[in-house]
Design a protein that fits this description.
Elements lengths: L10 E6 L2 E6 L4 E6 L7 E5 L22 E8 L2 E3 L7 E3 L6 E3 L2 E11 L5 E13 L4 E11 L3 E3 L5 E5 L12 E4 L15 E6 L8 E7 L10 E3 L5 E3 L7 E3 L4 E12 L3
Length: 264
Amino acid sequence: MFACSLLFAALAAFQLPDGWRIQRTDGSVVLEQHAGRACRPYIHPLMGPGGKGVFTEYAPGHHLWQRGLYTGLHVVNGVNFWEEEKDRFHCEPMAKPVVNGSKATWEVKAHWTKPDGTPVFTETQAWALEDLGTNYVMNVTWTLAAENEATIGKWAYGGLFLRMPYRPKNRKLQEARNSRGKKNRAAEQQVAEWVEVSMPIEGLTQNGVVRIEDLPGNPGYPNPWRVDTQLGIAPSFCIRGDTKIAKGEKLVNRYRVTVGTEKK
């Protein structure tokens, strides 16, 4: 349950060496979108409302390959696009985000290739963010265009993945819950319209909450989800089975990410 929206500040975009920062004109950061030429695109840090608290974690000790909020798939034509990054992802230079008041849009394009350079997908992430003050909403259209015939293999996880700063010492204060009332590992591999994670965030007195929604119209909607032992979450269509995409065809999924804090 999110705190209610109240006030918002206008947004602005500032260039980074490998992407762009979205921040408010009062100087508080919303997020950084990274898209280096030789790495997967990812969002980190994803800040809390008003720029307080870091809601994502980069390369945690329990999963060093994870990158805050990002996409990946474990087996595509026999190649691991989940843990492996070197020689797999090649991002195009990002255009400056378009900012209009409390809204911002941007696009990330990455080429997925096999280690020998054979192209597999051209990935596009089209993001649209609206700052509502005490929370904000991000919609993304995730498109995988097949450069050659592709098979996404059945696996227990994959897709749009969120890694928040899980801490074992806070185990009793951290929770994942889905739209159908299942919590934590009971939600693993289960079908749901959405899953949200609530946990303590350094610098905040209330738990931070991030919800990902699997939107109607997506293939297989509603899809099963990954909910791992550190409460990493992902809507994972690949849990259902293999997905085949012919050369020149596209797989399109749309998701909504809401970032806020628990109501007191």
